[in-house]
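Give me the fold.
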Amino acid sequence: MAQLRVTDASQLLEIKSEPYVIYSKRGYQPVIDVENVHTGDDGHLVITAQSLSDPLHEFAEKNDGNLTGIVIIVRKESKDRMSTYVVTCQ
């Protein structure tokens, strides 16, 4: 499954899995499987960034500890590669 890249354009994503770990060129990384609701494309989303993992944790707490099935809108704050994520629950 390919890594889904987040840009400064909003994406509507449905979370398809709970967090799990994959091995990549950067070592082990936590990911979740997601599907783009508009395009049907699926992939995994690396959730290492604090600006991404904190809101996901809050959403899971409100959903009996589960992420699977939650629909989110995610984008980067700017085009800068290191910019923070902006995440809202749909």
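The chain has one helix and six strands.
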